[in-house]
Each structure stands twice: as C-alpha cells, then as structure tokens.
C-alpha cells in the first residue's frame, strides 16, 4: 500500500465520496435514513480502525457512542439546547474527555485484557442508564430536529449535514493516518518493543488513538441520535459495540474510508434481508457476512487494492511488450 502523504489527493477523494453520497441520497430519498445511520456508525468504526491498526480491539465503543447520544438527548430535554453545532461539539468533547480519563488505565493493557476492560466499562454505563429514571431509564429520550442558523433542519437537510460532516471528518482522519503519529499504529502492532527502542512511546500513542476513537464515537452517537430521533441504553449494550467491531473488520483498516464502506454495506444487507426475508433475515444477513469475511479477509476495501494491482500488472505487461 502506498503511504505517501498527499494532502491534495486525500482532499479530492474525500470530496468525491461526499458528492457521490449526496447524489445517491437525493436521487433515492428513501435511502437517506439508511445512509445517515450507516455513516454515523461508520464514524464509530473509524475510531476502532485507529485501535485495530495498533493491534487492539475495543468491544466497548458503545460506551462513547451512547455517551455522545445521551449528551444530546439530555441537553435537549433538561437544558433545552437545540443548536446543532453546540450539541455535536458537546457530544464529541464529552466522549473524548471520558476516553482521555479511562485511557490512562486502558493504555497499560493489551490483547484480551484491553478488549474485556473496554467491554466491562461499556456495560457499567448500560447498567447505570437502564436503572436510573433521571437518565430516562429503559425508555431513554426522544431527540428532535436540531437548529442551525435559527432554522430547524428538515430530514433532507439533516442528511446533507451528516454527509458533509462525515466527509470532513474522514478527510481529517485520513491525514492523521498518513502522519507520523498515525503510522506508528502498524509499527506498534508489529513490534511494540522496537518502537520504544526507536524513541517513540507506544503507550502515549495508544492513549492518543483511544481519545480520538472515543471522540469519533461520541460524534457518531450525536449524529445518529438526530437521524433516529430516539436514544436508549441499548446504545451502550455489548451487541452494539460488537457491531462496530464487525463494521471495522468488514470494511478493512487500510484507510479511513474503509469503515464507512463497511457500514453502508452492512446496513444495506440488513435492510434488504429484512424487507425480502422478514422471517429469516438474521440467517440471510449472517450468511452474507460470512461469505464476505471468507472471500475478502482484508475487508471490502481490499477490492480496490486488487484492482490497482491488476492495473499495474497490465501496465507492466504492456511496457514489457513494447
């Protein structure tokens, strides 16, 4: 994989993907909700990619996804805030600060210990939410359309905002992955001791990635709450966190665009399976996911790598023929 840092190309790819998503959404309005939810979940999986590149799997990103969503719901319910920017910034900062605090503990652990600790922390939040009526109990909160520039956002406008914000975020994370700090992740996964010998702090880099992953999850939770219109404790349940891990693996970890692709494909398969096989949709979905994992172990994004390799092979063959 070519890791040469090219900000212009990164921006062009992000802009092209954003335009395509907007075009598809407005050409097929019935898919706007699915795309908006998929992109929101893709942002959470994007944070997981940062950790997976360092060899760590978090089964507790539902903690920050739920924290971001609940910050939006509670701010609307108790503080009567409705400004989109304020709500999303608050959701992101709350999740990032929480991730920063817990990261001091989690950055010390690796492998199964890291995964189980993240899962345990997420389930603690789930238990607190489901038994606390002040926090909505098992019913949660309703979330209403936010306001920007004094105007309440309609569904199509909210979809456009979600796509644009996602595009900007993916562009920023892709640039991070191509920076020195971003490239340390695979090096830590390969040999953490060697990274330490070279003068870089593996623990500090993992802590930074964990904070970024938490912030992305909170941001995705805030966006998701607007699209769905309701939040509940299940957002912190272990199955939700497991879905984010699956999305990250399904898309791949080669770049920042992969988890968004994985999230869209997963939501599309789920929607079609539920529509055409309502009684056996879980079986259809499971079989589809199993086939994708078996035949594309590198994730969906590996298809682009295969296409590039075939293109280079043809070019070399043509040059050799000349």
TrEMBL record:
Give the bilayer topology.
Multi-pass membrane protein
Q: Say if the entry is tagged with keyword Transmembrane helix.
A: yes
Q: Name one Pfam family in it.
A: BPD_transp_2
What are the subcellular locations of this protein?
Answer: Cell membrane
* Domain of life of the source: Bacteria
Q: Which residues cross the membrane?
A: 12-28, 34-51, 63-79, 85-106, 113-133, 153-173, 208-229, 283-304
Key words, A-Z = Cell membrane, Membrane, Transmembrane, Transmembrane helix
Its chief place of residence is membrane
Tell me what this protein is called: Branched-chain amino acid ABC transporter permease
At the highest ranks, the source species' classification is:
Bacteria, Pseudomonadati, Pseudomonadota, Betaproteobacteria, Burkholderiales
């Amino acid at each position: 994989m070519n890791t040469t840092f090219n900000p212009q190309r990164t921006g062009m790819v992000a802009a092209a993907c954003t335009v395509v998503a907007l075009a598809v959404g407005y050409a097929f309005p019935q898919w706007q909700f699915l795309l908006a939810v998929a992109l929101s979940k893709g942002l959470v999986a994007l944070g997981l990619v940062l950790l997976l590149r360092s060899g760590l799997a978090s089964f507790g990103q539902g903690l920050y996804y739920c924290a971001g969503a609940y910050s939006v719901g509670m701010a609307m319910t108790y503080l009567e805030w409705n400004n989109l920017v304020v709500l999303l910034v608050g959701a992101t900062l709350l999740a990032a600060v929480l991730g920063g605090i817990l990261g001091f503990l989690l950055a010390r652990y690796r492998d199964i210990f890291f995964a189980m600790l993240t899962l345990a922390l997420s389930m603690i939040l789930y238990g607190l939410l489901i038994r606390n009526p002040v926090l909505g109990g098992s019913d949660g909160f309703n979330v209403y359309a936010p306001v920007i520039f004094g105007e309440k956002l309609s569904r199509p406008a909210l979809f456009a905002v979600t796509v644009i914000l996602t595009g900007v975020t993916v562009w920023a994370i892709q640039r991070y992955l191509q920076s020195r700090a971003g490239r340390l992740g695979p090096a830590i996964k390969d040999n953490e001791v060697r990274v330490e010998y070279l003068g870089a702090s593996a623990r500090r880099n993992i802590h930074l990635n964990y904070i970024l992953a938490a912030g992305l999850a909170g941001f995705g939770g805030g966006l998701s709450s607007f699209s769905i219109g309701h939040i509940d404790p299940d957002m912190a349940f272990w199955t939700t966190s497991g879905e984010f891990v699956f999305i990250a693996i399904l898309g791949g970890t080669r770049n920042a665009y992969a988890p968004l692709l994985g999230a869209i494909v997963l939501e599309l398969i789920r929607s079609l399976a539920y529509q055409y096989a309502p009684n056996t949709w879980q079986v259809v979905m499971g079989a589809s996911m199993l086939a994708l994992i078996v035949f594309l172990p590198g994730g969906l994004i590996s298809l682009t790598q295969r296409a590039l390799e075939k293109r280079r092979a043809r070019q070399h063959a043509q040059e050799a023929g000349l």
